Amino acid sequence: MKLSPYFSATANMAKKLKSAGAKALVLFNRFYQPDFDLETMSVAPTLFLSSPGNIRIPLRWIAILYGRVKVSLAATSGVYTAQEVIKYILAGADVVMTTSSLLQKGVGNITNLIEGLENWMEEKEYESIKQMKGAMSHKSVADPAAFERANYIKIIEKYKREYKMV
Question: What is the pTM of this model?
C-alpha cells in the first residue's frame, strides 16, 4: 500500500492498514503535482525529481514503524547515493527504491549504490543486510526521543548555539 506523508496519525494509519490486510507499506508515495503556466494560463505537467533531502520524512517514519507494525517497509524518495540506501536499511526498510537518481545519473548508478553499500558494510563489519536492518530504528537507538516532536526544541537550541543567535 502506497502511503502519503500527509496523514496526521501515520502510525495509527499503518496499524489500520495492517489490520485490513496490507502486507507492505511504501513510505512515501510522491503525488503528481501540476504547476500553472502563467503565459499560456494552463495547467502545466511538471516533473520535480526528489533530492537527497527528501529522505528525512520517510526515514523517520520507517524508523518509528519498524518492529511495531508487522509489515514490510519500502523506502522511496531521496535515494541518490549508497548513504541513503544505508540509512533506510538501518531505519528498518526491507526495500529501497530510487527513480530520480536513475533518471539523472542513468541505470549504471545502481552499481554505485550496491558497491557503496557493500563497502560500507565491510568497513563496519556487517555480514548481512538482515544484521543491519533496524539497527537505528526507534526501538533500537539509545535515545528514541530523537525521533519525536519534543526533540524539535533541542534542535532549535543547538542551531542557536552553533550560529550564536540570541
Answer: 0.85
